[in-house]
Amino acid sequence: MAVAKNRQNKRSNALVITEALLVAYIGYIASFILVQLDLIPAPDIETNTVNMFLITITVLLCSLSVGLYEAKLRETFRGIIRRVFVSLGLTYFIVEVVTQTFFDLLQMHPYYLPTAISLNLIAIVFFRYFTNRLGLLGLGRLRLVVLGAGERASIIERRMRRDADRIGIDILGFIPLPGDNREDGIKNEKIIHLKVDQSLRHFLIENDIEEVVIACDQRRGTLPLDVLFDCRLRGVEITDLLDFIERETGQIAVNLMYPSWVIYSNGFHSQNYLRDALDYTLNALLATVMLLLTWPFMLFTAILIYFDDGRRSKAPIFYRQERVGHNGKLFKIIKFRSMRVDAEKDGAKWASKNDARVTRIGNFIRKYRIDELPQLINVFKGEMSFIGPRPERPEFVEQLVKEVPYYNQRHNVKPGLAGWAQLNYPYGASVDDSIEKLKFDLYYVKHQSMLLDILILIRTVEVILFGKGR
């Protein structure tokens, strides 16, 4: 597991460094071309260096904010191009504001910035094309086999169907073991028929296998422990299926969890005492900054809701609803009202896509998360954090606790305005969707850290820009 994570980190670092060098070089080329065309005077070395550095750093941050450096970016090449456009558009806006408003000494020639951004757009699109299509910067794919070809192993086939799901790994095949449920097992993957004795040992050595994933349906009396022990001594990673799915997909397969895995895992409670101690202070500070930036949008939204149907129906602008918070404590969440006042006259219902109960203004503010902004008040009150699982209604929690294993574990942390599940599974309106989101929520609860919070906070920009989520 550590080897694979190290390879993923190396690939991401190589991508960032290479793209940084590319952007900086294109910045130099832009200046060179404009000087040769007599469109701008030749800048001195200091000015040129500062311009290149400012554009490079801004491009990297904006690319990170729209998910372009995610090792497991689940996106078509067309989608990647769209993200590159957004990233460079943000770069142009930020650099223009910084140089024109805050730092007069950094002002660029009017021709330089649009030229540099345009050339970078072309260069990065071509670079991403060859990187993705030809597998450049892969730094070697991790060669692995899966021990098992039954029902448990089939989760790899279902969850990791596309090439984007297997970036950095090369699954040579699945080795059936006695006791595997082949009827509900692997259907379309390569099956490797081997006796689990010395033949398996020779196969692993001859094919330079770096990791073995344990995914058999029955372990007792079926696993070749002596072979696995010998492989581990040789440096081959032996990884449980749950750990493999957690690492590669960023979720925990709750339907496959068993008590001993939970007991021996690193736990579902935060061990970051500094982060816990500063939790409220950091969240209150972020909420203050967010409020200062968004109050005009909030005021405008309130006016729109009032004139849309509030004035006619005397319906409130804000909507308060009971939700389940930290350790199961109930609190009242505050949102801009996006549904009709009689939306739940027949009782609590799951929200759905294209929900007829949503108002005209409600469709827009839900798509871009504007309806969530009043929850800053909940953050100030200490009931919510900026990052965490989305709080659910007690009526639904009561149902989900009965139907979904380990559902209550998501209440080990405060609910949040944004979360890991919203980035990876943007829409949910049923028990099945709640199970899928829980897999990501438990991953967050297990891996919660300040770094992960910052990553989610930055990636939330992607949700807002592309109108994903709820």
TrEMBL record:
Q: Mind telling me what this protein is named?
A: TIGR03013 family PEP-CTERM/XrtA system glycosyltransferase
Residues covered by the Bacterial sugar transferase domain? 282-465
Alphabetically list the UniProt keywords: Membrane, Transferase, Transmembrane, Transmembrane helix
Task: Name the protein family.
Answer: Belongs to the bacterial sugar transferase family.
Q: Which NCBIfam families does the record match to this protein?
A: EPS_sugtrans (TIGR03025), EpsB_2 (TIGR03013)
Name its cellular compartments: Membrane
Please name the source species: Alteromonas gilva
Gene3D superfamilies, alphabetized: NAD(P)-binding Rossmann-like Domain
What Pfam families does the annotation carry? Bac_transf
Which ranges does the record mark as transmembrane?
12-37, 49-68, 80-99, 111-131, 284-307
Where is it mostly found? membrane
Q: How does it sit in the membrane?
A: Multi-pass membrane protein
Instruction: Report the superkingdom from the record.
Output: Bacteria
